[in-house]
Each structure stands twice: as C-alpha cells, then as structure tokens.
Specification:
It is a single chain. The chain is of the alpha+beta class. Helix 14 crosses helix 16 and helix 18 crosses helix 19. The protein starts with a helix and ends in a 78-residue tail after the last helix.
C-alpha cells in the first residue's frame, strides 16, 4: 500500500515538472526575442539619418533641378513666414495639441506604445481623430522621411522612434512644437501655420478666429483632402472635429464650440489663387512642372511634403526659348486668344525636354496644359501612325505602291470622303499619297491593313484609338502634341517607342537616390521607320506641304495636320466656313521630336484662316532651328533591310521587290549618305505621269483598293520583273468592306465621321489650299 502511494505521488509530480520546463522555454524565447529586437532597434537607430536644429527648422517643400543640375524652382512658398513659439496664440497651440497629441506636454519619451495601441482601437471605433504617432514623431517624419508607402518599412519605423527619443532629449517641448507648426504642409503650396494664415485669410496667426484656427489645425493629417477650396464639406467636418476635441480637452466651452461650428467654412476665406512655385522661372516652367508633380505623385511621393530633390529632363534654355517664341512677336499671331500646345521629346530615351501649355496666359498657374490635352483632333498627322506605317510593317508596301485617289464612300454608309482640295488624282504612289496628304488613299490603306491591326500598332506607340471611331480615325483622332512627339520619335530612332518621361531622379531627404532610366519597346522594324522618314522628308522641302518648316541643310522629316468644321458647325456659325478648327505640325531630326498644336479654346467662335494654319509649322521651324544650332546634324542611315532603286526615289523592303520598277533601273545597296538622300519629288500634280516614280505598274492585284483605274493618268504597261525579290502584295482578309472596321455614330451626317473632313462645298481659298 505504501509503495503504491509513493508511485502515485511521483506520477503526479512529473507533469508539474514538465509544465515548469515549458514556462522556462517560453520565457527564454521571449527574452531572446526582446534582445534581438533591441539589437535590431539599436542597429537601425545608429544608421538613422542625422537630425539637428537646422534640419528640423527647414521647410518641407521640394526643389526641382533641370537635367544639368541647375535649380528651376521650389514647390510651394519659398518665402515661408517663420513664427517663434512665443508669438503663437494659446488657442492655436490648444487646437494643434488637442488634435495631434493631447498628452504632448506630459510625454517625454518621444513615442507612446500605449497610444499606438489605443489609436488602432479608436480608429476601428471611429471615435478619435488622433493617430498613433506623437507630435514629435510627426516632426521626424516631416523632416527626414518621405511619405511614399514603399518607404514605410519596419526599419523606417524603428528609426523614427529612435530619432524621436533623441529629439525629446535634445530639445524642449516648446522648440519641438515651434519646429512642427512652421514645417507642416497645409495644402496649396503653403508651409507653416503663419504662412497659411496669410494665404487663406490674409491675417497674422494671432488675428484668426477660433473657427479659422480650428480649420488650419485639422489640415495636417490630409491637407489636400481638407482643402477648403476644393473640398469645403470635408474641411468643415474636419474643423468641427477639431472643435469637439478642444472641448473634450477642456480648452474651450460648449458655447464657443457651438458658435464656431455654426460659422460657414468660407467665412473670411480669401479667393483661391494657385501657388505652384517661386522664382523668375515660375510662369515659364509652369506647364512642365504641373506634369512633374503628377509623375512624382504617381511614383508614390508627395512633392509638397517630402523635402525632395527632383531632377527632371527639362533643358531650361530650350524651355525659355520655346516660351519666348510663343509669347513674343517673332511669329505673327493674330491675337492673344490664339493658343498653342508644344512638346519637345528626345527620341532616344523619351525624355521631355520642354513643354508649353499655352501662350499669353498672364499669371495663371496649374491651368489647362494644351500640350497634353486629348480633346482635339490631330488631323493628318495620324496618317503615318495608323495608315501607312502598318501597311509597310505588315504588308511590306514599297514607296511606289499604287493607291487609288478616286471618289470614296465609307463602307456601309452613304458618307462620302473628300480630299482637302476636293479633287482626285487617280492612281498615285504611297509616297505621293502621304507626302501630299491625300485623305482617300489614307483611308483605303487603313481598310486594307485592317482597323483592328492598325489600332494595335498605334497603341504600341502610345496612342489609343477608340473602336467606335472606325476608319475615319485614319485621318484624325483625339491625340495630344506630346503623344505625337513621342510616337514620331519611334520613326526617328529606328522603331523603338519610349513612354514620355519628365523625372530622371528623386533624392529623398535621407540622401537616397531613386533613378528612373527609360525602357523602350520595339514597335516596328528599322525598315518601316526608315521608309516613313524618307517619305516625310518630302513634306518639309521648299515645295512640300510643310514648307513653312523647311530649314536649309537640316536632315529632318515631318507631317502637317488640320481638322475642319462639319456642315452642322458651319450652319450654326457661318463665319467658320473656309476655316480650320485645329492645325498641327509634328517633325523630327535624329535628336529631337516636336509636336505642335494650334487653335482656339472656343473653336465654335473662332477658326483658323489660311494664314493662321501656317503658324504650327512656323513654331516648329523657329524652335527646331534653335535646337539644330546646338546639336549634330545627322542623316538617317539606310538599314540593310531596305533597298533603294537607283535613279529613283523608290524604296522597298528586301525580299519584297515590287513589280512596277522601271526596267532601266538598278538596285542601289550603298549605305552612305548620298544613298540616303531622297530624290526630290516632282512638282505637285506633275508626278502622276512620271515613269521614274511609277516605273512599270503591276495592275494584276486582287484588292480593289490598289487596283489601277482604267481612267487614271498613270502608266499601265503590265510588265513585270522576274527578280527573285519579286512578290505580289497579299490579298487582305480584313478589308475596308468589313463592317466591324467602320463604326459610324453619325450616319445621318453629310460629311464623313472624321473631324478633319472638309465641308461638302469647296472652300474659297483664293487659290491657296489649306495646310495639311
């Protein structure tokens, strides 16, 4: 019996021993975890950015530098009105502390673990306006860290706590509060409460009313969300929460809180005015800086709060020259209402070199940037992108490919399409059709390629053509000057598209550099890019459609474009007859691509006459002449994949030799500059009978869009060449007769569904055709 009791005793003791052993393991593991966390905390803390009074006292605005490192501007108000703590009214202090850190003067550690926990609980319950960070931690965030979400790591949080502890040890509470209220961002480019008091109310801080102080005190958490100009309802709700916090913190009476809540948010508020930057460059660079702000935000930073050093791709000298061209009298602008949008892009990397969003704008900032607007038609500048480049890329068309310029009606409709001169040239070559900007051959070419295939080609070049525009998009869609400059850059550089970019580097306040290197996408062959460029060289010759852009001796290419008014628009305003709604020019060298739009902001009131239609090309010419004087003048080298027929200006893709080459011609495979020179076009209209261009026609084609017309003026001797390179252009399975290729939303109109289609009656131009 005794032995059984002893055995029972020992059996009962064993579990207790195991239990103690488990507690010991748990305790050791916890201690080890704490030691590891302390070691990591100290390690991260030692590597934290340096903090001193100069850093804490500095402003929070970002500085922007051009591509050479020269300062362009500072975002926000550089002339920040610094206020010392003894000048800050007590009510303003109470409003800030009640909102941001109620126990600010009682806490001396710099952070509060319990508050972090309670903030999470209260936020879930929705009954607190305070976050988990102390006011000291917020000062650290504003001074040495960015607001980018990807930067909000465990390492950064530990460094924030480490620095908050150091700041609490080295500075008094009043100093910390002074630094904070002078640094914090309060929307619309204002930093600090004294500066904001002047901006929003035109008063000193000690002159503000209770409700005005409460409005400002509530803004730091989300300044743009609580902007009283843009979001007055949200601003009032936030202001009233601040008043409630002040009452709960025993800083104001219930009567004071109620009276302040009943005051409209607009009471005493000054009229809104933009505040994008400072310095002598402010107006010159404004449209460019507007796009920089968008791009920086898209990368996850806040340019108004993160104390960034932003390096952009702008060439300040080019930007100033462009501003001078459109705002001076060196070009005969008709009036100050005449507008323009211009974009300059480096074809080799997509860098936006310069940009103008308008002219004669006065002190307007962050206004409409006409260089990036996509609400106006790009007219015939679309033809190389959507019509002819896909034909060369997919169908291997040579420059002497025969296309029909004869009466045309959009498939499935009764809508006829006219050329800009209301005449037809019969059978012409692709080179002539594009260089002379003929509408009918362009649409026929698009139909032959296939609308869906062409749309995909354009999309790869940064231009999205809506499906419902149908074939009419081949002579114009809603495209900006920036999109045009970037798309044409792919022709300039041999077939690679770069998305346009403004920012090349962002340095955060901790000294870390974020570099943004361009990545290009091959969107067409070198052969396609070269052939398009070779044709577009004809446009900028003294006898070309874009002769206003001609610069003697410069290797360049370009395309004109315009959009005209519909019959309905002219009926509403007969003075618009014989006018264009928009005129464009896009041109390029190997070093620069420039897109220019011109027109009026109210096109239904003002149109462009024949003289004004030349201004877009003139702007291009003035700017490109300046650029060319500061860069190398290089011609394009013909790639091996392109064959030039000696004695002609015929180009074709190797292994796709056309049949209609003159029998006496020879193949020139040289790759020197002389081989690259384009043989000048014959005078307008004289080319249709020229055998050197047409050579020997091949009219045995199955697709009617390039069948020879029996009434045409071109040669038609049906001879062929037995060269092994000879191929017959394929019959297209996705032709213009496919109803899916032409969705017309204006079937009752008497004009084609394209904004650049002329009215039915020919315009009276005094013998001068409108620019195309």
């Amino acid at each position: 019996m005794a032995n059984s009791r002893i055995e029972k005793y020992h059996r009962q003791k064993k579990p207790q021993k195991s239990h103690h052993k488990g507690l010991k393991y748990l305790l050791n593991a916890s201690l080890a975890l704490i030691v590891i966390m302390v070691v990591v905390f100290v390690y991260y803390g030692i590597s934290a950015p340096r903090v001193n009074s100069e850093i804490l006292q500095s402003g929070g605005s970002s500085t922007i530098y051009d591509h050479k490192g020269q300062e362009i501007t500072t975002l926000g108000n550089e002339n920040r009105t610094y206020i010392t703590i003894d000048k800050v009214p007590q009510t303003m202090k109470d409003a800030i502390i009640s909102t941001e850190d109620r126990h600010f003067y009682q806490e001396h550690l710099g952070f509060n673990p319990f508050r972090i926990f309670m903030a999470a609980i209260n936020n879930l319950r929705g009954d607190s306006i305070q976050g988990g960070s102390t006011l000291t931690q917020q000062l650290i965030k504003l001074s040495v860290f960015s607001t980018k979400k990807s930067d909000q790591t465990l390492k950064r949080k530990m460094q924030e706590v480490w620095l908050a502890v150091k700041v609490e040890r080295n500075f008094s509470k009043d100093q910390i509060l002074e630094y904070y209220l002078n640094k914090v961002y309060l929307a619309n480019g204002t930093y600090g409460f004294q500066t904001a008091a002047h901006y929003y109310f035109g008063k000193n801080l000690n002159q503000l009313t209770l409700e005005q102080m409460a409005l400002l005190a509530g803004m730091p958490q989300a300044p743009n969300n609580y902007d009283p100009y843009k979001n007055p309802d949200a601003a009032k709700t936030r202001r009233d929460l601040v008043l409630k916090a002040m009452y709960n913190n025993h800083k104001i009476t219930l009567e004071q809180a109620q009276n302040a809540k009943n005051t409209p948010i607009t009471a005493g508020l000054k009229a809104y005015r933009p505040n994008t930057g400072v310095g002598e460059n402010k107006l010159i660079v404004d449209p460019y800086i507007k796009e920089v702000i968008h791009e920086v935000k898209a990368k996850g930073f806040d340019p108004y709060r993160d104390n960034l050093k932003i390096t952009v791709n702008m060439d300040t000298k080019v930007q100033k020259r462009l501003y001078e061209i459109v705002n001076s009298n060196e070009i005969a602008f008709p009036n100050n209402l005449f507008q323009t949008g211009v974009s300059v892009v480096d074809p080799n990397n997509g860098a936006v070199i310069a940009m103008i969003g308008g002219r004669k704008l006065g002190d307007v900032q962050l206004g409409l940037n006409r260089a990036v607007q996509t609400s106006r038609s790009n007219g015939s500048t679309m033809k190389p992108i959507l019509d002819y480049a896909p034909a060369i890329e997919y169908l291997h068309w040579p420059t002497n490919q025969i296309v029909r310029d004869t009466p045309y009606t959009y498939p499935g409709t009764n809508i006829s399409l006219n050329n800009w001169d209301y005449s037809y040239m019969g059978n012409i070559t692709m080179r002539t059709a594009l260089a002379e900007s003929r509408n009918v051959p362009a649409i026929r070419t698009l139909g032959t390629v296939g609308f869906d295939r062409a749309r995909k080609f354009a999309r790869n070049m940064g231009i999205n053509v809506p499906q419902n525009e149908g074939l009419s998009a081949g002579i114009g869609s809603e495209v900006s000057s920036l999109q045009l400059a970037s798309a044409y850059s792919a022709f300039a550089n041999g077939g690679t598209y770069y998305k346009p970019s403004y920012v090349s580097k962002i340095q955060t306040i901790d000294g870390f550099n974020h570099h943004y290197d361009p990545t290009g996408k091959k969107v067409m062959s070198e052969a396609t890019a070269y052939v398009i460029t070779d044709i577009l060289k004809d446009v900028v010759k003294p006898t070309g459609m874009g002769s206003q852009a001609y610069i003697s001796g410069l290797y360049q290419a370009g395309k004109t474009g315009s959009s005209n008014y519909s019959n309905e628009e002219i009926a509403r305003n007969p003075s618009l007859a014989n006018m264009s709604k928009d005129t464009l020019f896009t041109g390029y060298t190997k070093n620069y691509a420039i897109g220019v739009w011109t027109g009026y902001d109210q096109p239904n009131l003002h149109g462009l006459d024949a003289t004004q239609q030349k201004i877009a090309a003139q702007i291009y010419q003035h700017l490109m002449r300046y650029l060319a004087a500061h860069s190398n003048n290089q011609n394009w080298n013909k790639p091996y994949s392109v064959v030039r027929v000696a004695g002609t200006n015929i180009l074709y893709i190797r292994h796709h030799r056309p049949n209609n080459i003159p029998a006496h011609s020879t193949i020139n495979n040289n790759n020197d500059n002389s081989a690259n020179e384009v043989v000048p076009n014959r005078g307008r209209r004289a080319h249709s009978n020229n055998s050197a261009e047409f050579g020997t026609d091949d009219d045995n084609r199955s697709n009617s869009d390039w069948d020879n017309n029996s009434n045409s003026n071109s040669n038609n001797n049906n001879s062929t060449n037995s060269s092994p390179d000879t191929t017959t252009p394929p019959t297209n399975g996705n032709s213009a007769t496919n109803p899916n290729n032409n969705t017309d939303n204006n079937s009752n109109s008497t004009t084609p569904p394209a904004s650049n289609t002329p009215p039915v009656a020919p315009p009276a131009n005094n013998g001068q055709p409108p620019t195309q």
